[in-house]
Amino acid sequence: MSETVSDYDLVTDPYSIPLDGRYNVAQSFLFQQEKHWQYFDRLRKEAPVHYCSESQFGPYWSVTKYHDIMEVDTNHQIYSSEGGIVISEPDEELPLPMFIAMDPPKHDEQRKVVSPVVSPLNLTKLESTIRSRAARLLDQLPLGEEIDWVDNISIELTTQMLATLFDFPFEERRRLTRWSDVTTANEESGIVDSMDQRRAELYECLATFTEIFKQRQKKPGNNDLITMLAHGEATKDLLDRPMEYLGNLLLLIVGGNDTTRNSISGGVLALNRYPDEYDKLRADPSLIKSMVPEIIRWQTPLAHMRRRALVDTTLNGQKISAGDKVVMWYVSGNRDEDAIDDPYDFIIDRKFPRRHLAFGFGIHRCMGNRLAEMQLRVVWEEIMKRFEAIEVVGEPDRLPSTFVRGITKLPVVLHGKCPVGSE
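Structure (tokenized):
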């Protein structure tokens, strides 16, 4: 068995590790322990486009600086997403083609079918639903008692929205959360006991949504994603390609879940780590508008996306060969001091708060980015009406994953606003 970086003393001093082909930053425990930052700092300074020749995922290039990532992300003619978007290779026993892992024209045709769900008109209709649900959930929370913010708010609010987008049975909505978690699970996550269990649960998802698809073919719903797929010209025959149907379902489920869910948790954590920013927000709640994209940048819910070079090319002086795996580390680009001022600081009134990579760029830019921002804005508007502070009272639990920067538990205590005129 060849030596990898995990055999080195990773946690103590990344600069003692030779920066050679065994320097493998794609280690899930680094992300779980929040130790990945210093390794990306070194790569940005010393090897911004770095080739790892030996890893559990095979050889790959790490692209770690903002502008290099942009170059890869916006050049799909050179860097293809065909066949997979994560550093690991697809499960050969359960291949999941999806439009985010396709190149034009098929990508464009399938994405176009479901994009109306996040049109400005539909977002306007959804806002009142999101607000009423957020208000109801927040009003049910106890003051002065420790609760888990992730389960009570982050998961529940996003799961309710998922159920709405799919017109899924509301009382069964937590099945959507489970399928989202299982989709991105690895053997270290503790979410599934084996890959066989993962496959079984995803086949259950397929069976459930196959029946819904058939129902919507006969009786269309109102602006829900399954109705759009069942009647879209490029997707109406997806049941003839069940793995592609499942792949697109899981893309929409994960896309509608992970970004918002982990940003809702990340925002609470950020404000507690930067109490001056919390004071600034209390003094001027209108800063929520610029705080929302700053939360998304600071959290970067999806750490990376991968591409594969279609031709021999050069990136920042490095020669990349056709067929090479190229990993864009969004989590590193969002901490690039050459592109973002004070990138490690959480600053809710940044001058250019949307200057971040968390949604990607180019043809694969996150379709639901405005929906994610709207959900965050609404939930923080409702939070500020009710609570003087959400106090984090313990360390968060994090997901061991190089893909999803997930917070699985966040203990907090809520403090209500003092009545006007009281001490």
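The radius of gyration is 21 Å. The first helix runs from residue 28 to 32.
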